[in-house]
Specification:
Length: 268
């Protein structure tokens, strides 16, 4: 669609508090097929709907991912989770994107690692519907955490990347309206201290990880000690990695279970 000037659109977006009003106006204009549709999209944006849900896609590590109303929009900080997962993956390995949302981390892994075998799972049907548009549909599973994964993956997962909900229930009201009012709370609410789902993920991970496999959990800097405790309680060796520019914190747990035929050395 072409329009004589986007200045009025920019002004409306800016008055509504959109920091990147010029960029958003261009994206909305590119997505609209008519002036009337652009007007309707601007009205939705001014009302607080996330830009990505309006235009129908989000960018993640250079990939354009389908996004529907109500689903969790991939965050820039989660690109760090994807990057660390890619760094630990090897060609042909097995990876799982748990609590996958629209499948952003899984899509990044497929794009970056040759021959990788990736599965993704989420409990939110809308998120699963989106993920099946962004990934090989047969590899996207609907259900609670590990429940929908194929049994044959037990003990074979080399990289388990997890962006589980970790916002404490009482703090959801403090989130920006775009998230609080327009994303399904199942993707946000982590329980009283934000760690309910992470603890379940950590507890179940040894059954699925290959010897030497890695669990990567996105968390916050404040909650990282609790996440570390949960992962260590599952018997994994842990470390914390951060990327300040994105405000990203990840706890990495590594399985110390020996590979078949190996014997762990013991100090006398």
């Amino acid at each position: 669609m072409t329009t004589p000037s986007l200045d009025p659109v920019v002004a409306r977006l800016r008055s509504a508090g959109c920091v990147f009003a010029e960029d958003e106006a261009e994206l909305l204009a590119a997505a609209a097929s008519s002036v009337a549709e652009l007007e309707a999209m601007v009205e939705r944006r001014v009302a607080g709907l996330p830009l990505e849900q309006i235009v129908g896609w989000a960018e993640f590590r250079g990939l354009r991912l389908a996004v529907e109303p109500g689903v969790f929009v991939p965050r820039r900080r989660t690109e760090f989770l994807a990057e660390r997962a890619i760094a630990l993956a090897t060609p042909g390995c097995v990876a799982v994107d748990l609590c996958c949302g629209v499948g952003a981390v899984a899509a990044a892994l497929i794009a970056a690692v040759d021959g990788i075998e990736v599965f993704a799972a989420d409990v939110d049907p809308a998120a699963v519907r989106c993920a099946r548009r962004n990934l090989p549909a047969e590899r996207v599973l609907e259900g609670d955490l590990y429940a929908p994964l194929p049994p044959g993956l037990r003990g074979r997962v080399d990289v388990l990347a997890v962006n589980a909900p970790y916002v404490p229930t009482g703090e959801i009201r403090l989130m920006p309206p775009e998230a609080r009012d327009h994303e399904h709370h199942v993707a946000l609410d982590g329980g009283a201290d934000g760690l309910d789902v992470q603890r379940r993920v950590a507890a179940g991970s040894p059954e699925w990880l290959a010897p030497g496999g890695h669990l990567l959990i996105e968390t916050s800097e404040r909650q990282a000690p609790l996440t570390v405790a949960a992962v260590e309680a599952a018997g994994l060796a842990t470390r914390v990695v951060r990327f300040e520019d994105l405000g990203a914190t990840i706890v990495v747990g590594t399985s110390v279970r020996p590979r078949r035929g190996e014997v762990l050395s013991r100090r006398p």
